[in-house]
Amino acid sequence: MSGSSSQGSLHALADRWLPKLVLSPTLAASLIFVYGFIAWTGWLSFTESRLMPRYEWAGFVQYQALFENERWWTTAANLGIFGGLFILFCLLVGLLMAVLLDQKIRAEGALRTVYLYPMALSFVVTGTAWKWMLNPDMGLQKVVVDLGFTDFTFDWLVNPDMAIYTVVIAGVWQSSGFVMALFLAGLRGIDDSIIKAAQVDGASLPTIYRRILIPSLRPVFFSVLLILSHIAIKSFDLVMALTGGGPGNSSDVPAIFMYQFAFTRGQLGVGAASAMMMLITIVAVLVPLMYMETRSAKRV
Amino acid sequence: MKLKRLSAAVLAASLFPVAAQAADVEVLHWWTSGGEAKSVAELKKMMSAQGVTWKDFAVAGGGGDNAMTALKTRVVSGNPPTAAQIKGPAIQEWGAEGVLADIDAVARAGNWDKQLPPVVSRVMKYKGKYVAAPVNVHRVNWLWANPEAFKKAGATVPKTWPEFFAAADKLKKAGIQPIAHGGQPWQDATLFESVALGVGGADYYNKAFVKLDKATLAGPTTVKVFETLGKVKTYIDKGAAGRDWNLATAMVINGKAGMQFMGDWAKGEFTAAGKVPGKDFICTDAPGTQNAFTFNIDSLAMFQQKNPAAVQAQAKLAATVMSPAFQEVFNLNKGSIPARLDTPMAKFDDCAKKSSFDMNAASKSSKLVPSFAHKMAMPSATEGAMVDVISQFMNSSMTAQQATERLARAGAVR
């Protein structure tokens, strides 16, 4: 056996095992800290856990308590309103800005930074800033009233029926720039020759966008939906900073519900059950999306 | 490699928690703001005078929620602190987990049973044994008023609900916001509680919110309470949503608003603004609650220690907390009153003196009741469900009848 061949087999061994070895700590960490804890939470949701975890099987009592809780249904309805409008407006505003920025305009870099900048803020900062702007006594309403329009009212923030929509406003402001960046990258990735061919065929610019460019952004739409829907479902800090879930519980969302029941009300079981419901919601949204995306990728 | 070393370090740290040194006490608390921090520093001084090292375990924020999360982690890992700031029925909940230490010997030596009102000592005991030591008593059913504003409106500080609404109308006419309030769930509950005590009386309060008697909760008195609360609601400005309590107090201080329902921690805001009780601001019982007293007591619950030296240090801590010297200096700084009935009150201001006097009187006439808005009266699950209903009522067009039904249902949540 010569030296070089033993070295070769060593290389082969390293080639085979090194990637696995390097990846194993991350894999172990995510197995334990993500899936392990999901399983733990799932188990807790079937126990009588109160202040501290207990492990005796108790069946579906916590889910029953959860579904009988009026506040839980308020949070679910709010999630529907917030999630739906947030995703819709982020997509519309983001796509519109991307298309407009795509027109080879001057100072595009500067404008792009302006729109992308809110992304650099944390949701807490966004929430606090919008809280001040939307406050009827010192924000937008006061400015307009001081300008002379004394009948002007904009009190959504303190109106229990409208408070959830202020969360949508702040959320869209924060995230639409990011969506724009994704769409812009997608638009730039499209081969120029397709556009030129369309132009030669005499298609107008709106038609090119409508029939060629936007349909070819399909994978980007999936990524954006994927990201936005999980931002919406887990949103906590934005609501906490902007409305605190109020007035009353009118702008409460599931994440706040989960936190309060699990950690401040000594109802770990109900909290765990609500966490599982959130997980199921995310899975229900993401699995079809990811399935569709992988299928379309295969087709290409 | 770095990751591995890090994870090894984390593993080592979690496997071998640094054991508390022999004569150490570690106290988990969230007394971190100005006056409160000063109060804790006094306790630290007194402990080190006895040769016990103080290990501070302050977790700020969230009204103690963050501290509770930290505490749970420590207890689950089998390394609880010597004592933690826990109050009310939560002491019973922790007692049921079997982790609290029996300090009955210290209590017997210090004759605690005699020095505490029975309603208070009951809160400090788990299954008849002392497991916690009270540090202060806050009175919740206060009404704070700005005499300047009342003079301008030609109104008098109210003692009953009809008087209250008459005064509120006058203030409104004079262009002064009658009630300063912050629309946060706990403030809504604080207001509700004072209204309930004022309208229903101490007996009703006890039956409904301490014994959680379903018939009482669903009864006509509760409807009346909600009707009164609904009327009070109309004197609150729209900007109240989400307002912090101290900003509401500031409205009373600068005369923008006439009155505020708030516990005696509001006094700290007045005195910090250089106002003198009785002259620049008035502290009086919430309408209809004369002689009654809703209490909110901070206490240190003691956790079981393995090390005998730590047990000894813990006993010293418990004895010190209940000593008249500590009770006096702590409460002078914090604005509350001592839990010990025999603490000299000479150095306290008029509001505190009134509070202490009223507590003694209320204790004798059994009108000393725990504040449920401040987690003193019922299990946290029930309290949370009730507060949900109250803040929903405050922020919607729910009728008093509907609110009563929902409150009765919330009272059954355990």
TrEMBL record, chain A:
Q: Which InterPro entries match?
A: ABC_transporter_permease (IPR051393), MetI-like (IPR000515), MetI-like_sf (IPR035906)
The stretch of residues making up the signal peptide is none
Gene3D superfamilies annotated for this entry? MetI-like (1.10.3720.10)
Q: Which family does it belong to?
A: Belongs to the binding-protein-dependent transport system permease family.
Q: Residues in domain ABC transmembrane type-1? A: 76-291
**Could you confirm whether the keyword Repressor appears in this record?**
no
Its keywords, alphabetically, are:
Cell membrane, Membrane, Transmembrane, Transmembrane helix, Transport
Name the CDD domains for this protein. Answer: TM_PBP2
Chain ranges passing through the membrane: 21-43, 79-101, 113-133, 162-187, 220-242, 268-291
Write down what this protein is called. ABC transporter permease
**Compartment annotation:** Cell membrane
Annotated membrane topology is: Multi-pass membrane protein
Which organism does this record belong to? Vogesella fluminis
UniProtKB/TrEMBL annotation, chain B:
* Family in the record: Belongs to the bacterial solute-binding protein 1 family.
Where in or outside the cell?
Periplasm
Q: Does the keyword field hold tRNA processing?
A: no
Q: What is the name of this protein?
A: Probable sugar-binding periplasmic protein
Signal sequence region: 1-22
Q: A Pfam family name for this chain? A: SBP_bac_1
Q: What is its main location?
A: periplasm
Which key words are in the record? Signal, Transport
Function summary: Part of a binding-protein-dependent transport system for a sugar.
InterPro entries xref list: Bact_solute-bd_prot1, SBP
Tell me what organism the protein belongs to: Vogesella fluminis
